[in-house]
Amino acid sequence: VVSALWGALLIRVxxxxxxxxxxxxxxxxxxxxxxxxxxxxxxxxxxxxNLTPNAPNMCRMYCSDLLNPNLKDTVxxxxxxxxxxxxxxxxxxxxxxxQGKDLTDWxxxxxx
Length: 112
Description:
The protein is mostly helical. Helix 1 packs across helix 3. The protein has helices at 4-20, 72-82, 92-98, and strands spanning 27-29, 35-37, 42-43. The two termini are 14 Å apart.
């Protein structure tokens, strides 16, 4: 049985792998000038501030804050996103690779 805490960890591990390959400095540039930033590829269209002047910046931080190997800001922003109605469905990587899958394989062989 996977506890809620383990479930949350497994979700983040799967998402981080498929969104960025665990690359905290990943930046994907979109045709409209927006960027997807950090280990969870959080979009500047709505969640963080980059050079786009009127973006909502719902996480109230710069997109560059999401590129730090210290994941504090990234986790705070990701938690805010998951509290939105779309939740984890916001991430294409989640919908295509993690949702509805047995995520326990991510820690198979680990001794906790």
